Amino acid sequence: MTPTPTPRPTDWPRVLAALFIAAGLAAAGWAIGEGLQRLRMADRVVTVKGLAERDVASDFAVWSLQFRRGGNDFAQLQQQLARDRERVLAFLKAQGFQPAEIETRPLEVQDLYAREYGGAQQPLRFNGRGQVIVQTARVDAVAAAALAVDPLIESGVQLGGEGPAGPRYQLRGFNEVKAPLLAEATRNAREQAEKFAAEAGAALGPLKSANQGVISVSGAGGQDFDDGSARVKRLRVVSTFQYELR
Fold first, then answer.
1. Mean pLDDT by 10 residues, the chain (246 residues)
2. Which domains are delineated in the chain?
3. What are phi and psi of 200, to 5 degrees?
4. Per residue, what are the HEC states of 16-73?
5. Is the pTM of this model over 0.85?
């Protein structure tokens, strides 16, 4: 048997380099094997999204009727605003609204000449406004009254002011609709997961994680957001679920 030659001192760098390469290849092979194992483990889950949408009628209305006047006589302007307020209240009473549904705000009169800059250049010295607010769960009554304001305007009341015009509709029973909507999204997601599992030749396992998502509210007429003008709200939620596969 031929004896193995002893490496010469000049050969040791090459020997050490070969050993490091062999060790690196072994480590890489182990890492690849572990990675494939994790990949196979990861393949045993399925992530699905459940969608649910529902149109819901508003259950509360807030209607702010603002009116304005301008003039140079302070006392006369106040009297005009007071008459306008009485006309607005008479109109609302004729529409069937009760005192508990109506809030009357104090009249406001501003002296434009008292402004620090450019006050004396104003054509009218005084600017006045008033506001009457209707708050009620009788949404249909508010919607009907908002379409019947022509006689009020014809009587000389100058409706309009700051903020959005027309009634604002709200969904105060949101929590009552939330649970059924999330349940629908959950059912939708599970149906998709079961279909995927069947197509993959697997059985659907237990739920691993869930994210119910955020319920968005928009106008059912196509608005991307709810500005309050739509009486019917569209609720939409996308929930994310992850199931194990067997």
1. 54 53 52 38 80 95 96 95 97 97 96 75 88 97 96 93 84 92 94 91 91 89 82 94 93
2. 43-57+173-245 (3.30.110.170), 60-170 (3.30.70.2970)
3. -90, 0
4. HHHHHHHHHHHHHHHHHHHHHHHHHHHCCEEEEEEEEEEEEECCEEEEEEEEEEEECC
5. no
